Fold:
Amino acid sequence: MSFKEYFRIWSQCSKEEQDMIESSLILRKVKKQTLIHQGDLDCTGLLVIKSGQLRAYSLSEEGKEITLYRLFECDVCLFSASCMMKSIQFELTIEAEKETEFWVIPFDTADYLMKKSVVFANYINEIMSSRFSEVMWLMEQIMWKSLDKRLAAFLVEESLLEETETLKITHEKIANHLGSQREVISRMLKYFQEEGLVQLSRGSIELLDYERLEELSE
Structure:
């Protein structure tokens, strides 16, 4: 499939806009754990995901991570071009959670279209609104939902993404997703194991009672 089949507003763009995008497109393929964008150190451009999975996370001064959202096939990564949005003050890092292939619409092209194309600008604003909604939902979860429920929800979501009930993931990685500490996650997982919800082994977590985890997450 070509780029135009992944970019939702392609048919709404003018021929001139389509030609501009096509002539500037860069196709990249990165390995798992590759850092694609880091804070305000670069302005990569807009990313359109062809395959794979990206993770956008925030990093505190103490080095604690928390996942803000994930990106999958056909998603557009907006904050990799945060220099287009002068009023955006917070920084985030984007890494590949799996081997990922994506197109880059360079900053110069994206910035020009943002200023000249109503269709393109509306699309970017729609994405921005969606991402902020995700971040606000996350903040509500952190503020009002207990860690056991958030952890259960994460395990269920990860199982759906990986299409398996045996997750190859470390306690440290889960802590990074949830903005917690490894020791806290380990204690909670030990409790889950005692309750018969999971079985822990080195480097993996087997979900033993998927239905109860779903109930807990809700």
User: Anything to note?
Assistant: The radius of gyration is 19 Å. The CA atoms of residues 156 and 214 lie 7 Å apart. Residues 3-143 form a domain with the Jelly Rolls fold (CATH 2.60.120.10). The first strand starts at residue 26 and ends at 30.
